[in-house]
Amino acid sequence: MYIRSVKLEKLTAELGYAAKLPAVKSLAAAGELEFESPVTYFVGENGTGKSTLLEAIAVKYGFNAEGGSLNFSFATRETHSPLHSAVKLVRGIERPRTGFFLRAESFYNAASYIEEADGGSGKILAAYGGKSLHEQSHGESFFSLVMNRFKGRGLYILDEPEAALSPSRQMSLLVRINELAEQGSQFIIATHSPIVLAYPGAVIYELTESGISITEYKSTETYSVMKAFMDSPERMIDHLFEKE
Ligand SMILES: Nc1ncnc2c1ncn2[C@@H]1O[C@H](COP(=O)(O)OP(=O)(O)O)[C@@H](O)[C@H]1O
Ligand SMILES: [Mg+2]
Fold first, then answer.
1. Number of structural domains, the chain?
2. CA-44 nearest atom, ligand 1
3. Going by C-beta distance under 8 Å and a sequence separation of 6 or more, which residues neighbour residue 200?
4. CB neighbour list of residue 2: distance below 8 Å, 6 or more residues apart
């Protein structure tokens, strides 16, 4: 593992909103998050702090806060929290050969940066499938990134990678994650997708209003809520639309 564990030092007011999140507070109080398997997930309700935590880990490791590979250095707007300054990482002995931080909202900026760096030469774009990332759909460009640019012995921190992908592409993403994990890559992924979450043997950290805990795939809300809906959409719609 390239990141073996994550701890938080004492939380101070300078850390802003992040220091008030229950998940962050419980991590600061309760020790560390261990990353022992090639794939680790963060799940939990909107607003529990998955993105904040993922971003702090990524920035601390040396990724650009806006996403991209380890050597990207663009900045359009500083919106990331200062939480990374309280993060302590235990790094593995080996360093990854490559890596990518996918920020949920800003793949567009990363794509622009790649195009600019390429400067029309096609040399850099070749590593991303050879086609302008802006001339592909969001899903297509993200998928070509994963297929072409993600390599073995890499560190990949992905925030909601399902956002742009169809269900079958999400399954292809799992296949790719498996290939890359077998080639010595490590993934840390925040997701709401029961498909993306299904990698066998992964550790799942669930963030809630009372902190962070390890959970099993089928015990996650992501799984149980989706399953309840898919088992009977009609019944669920009746239930949801029920009037007092
Ligand atoms: N820049 C910010 N300033 C103030 N509060 C923020 C900022 N970014 C996120 N938050 C708040 O922090 C909480 C956690 O956000 P986030 O980490 O994005 O959650 P998640 O990714 O789990 O949905 C949310 O309640 C959100 O409103
Ligand atoms: Mg998020």
1. 1
2. 22
3. none
4. 61, 91, 92, 94, 95, 96, 99, 155, 186
Q: What does pTM read for this prediction?
A: 0.89
Q: How far apart are CA 26 and CA 8, in angstroms?
A: 10
Structure tokens at 74: 């663009």
Per-residue pLDDT of the chain (244 residues; tens, 9 = 90+): 999 999 998 888 888 899 999 999 989 987 899 999 999 999 999 999 999 999 999 999 999 887 787 765 555 455 567 899 899 999 999 999 999 999 876 666 667 777 777 888 888 777 777 777 777 777 888 888 899 889 999 999 999 999 889 999 999 999 999 999 999 999 999 999 999 999 999 999 999 999 999 999 999 999 999 999 999 999 999 999 986 5
Shortest-distance Cα residue to atom 7 of ligand 1: 17
Which residues form the domain of 65? 3-218
Ligand 1 pocket residues where CB is under 6 Å = 17, 21, 44, 46-52, 79
Distance CA 55, CA 68 (A): 12
Instruction: Determine contact, residues 96/155, Cβ cutoff 8 Å.
Output: yes
What gap in Å lies between CA 163 and CA 161, rounded to an integer?
5
The total of other beta-carbon atoms located within 10 Å of residue 233's CB is 10
Domain presence at residue 236 = no
Domain assignment present for residue 203? The answer is yes
Does residue 239 fall inside a structural domain?
A: no
CATH of the domain at 12: 3.40.50.300
**In a domain? residue 105:** yes
